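Morning run. Coffee first, then this:
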Amino acid sequence: MAKTKQYRYKYSGRRTKLTEECVNKLEEAFSVGANVSQACYYANISRETYYKWIKATPALSDRFEDLKQKLPLQALHNIASRIHGKPTTGDINLSKWLIERRMSDEYGDSLTLKDDRLGLGTPEEDIEVINEFHKRIKDNRLRRSREKAIADGELKE
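And here it is:
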């Protein structure tokens, strides 16, 4: 009986997921304001893989950091265009909302953009409505927590 030569598969390492398609998906996610977790989910990679790539490729890290600034920069551009009386390319209220959220991290709670066109401040009746709204929310939360406690048998009716 003749011996047949057996071939062994030689493991040469795992193929990288760092493909052009994956990088494009990460770029797309970061350009619309996604955080690292969301971008990794969209590109179908783990956060650990992402951080390994960033550590190994500083240029890629710089590119992603630049793309993270794209959306806030567009929002600032919209606000500046409105200030100068030029037409904007996006919704000014969404731009203000985004800048309030993003810049509050940078400047603390001191930055607030109000829609105070006449410079008169918030009218007293609006403040009363806002306070009533907050009171009703608080009452609804309390009512729901009581109902849940009764349903769970923690409280008696």
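The chain has three domains: 20-68, 71-110, 122-157. Good start to the day.
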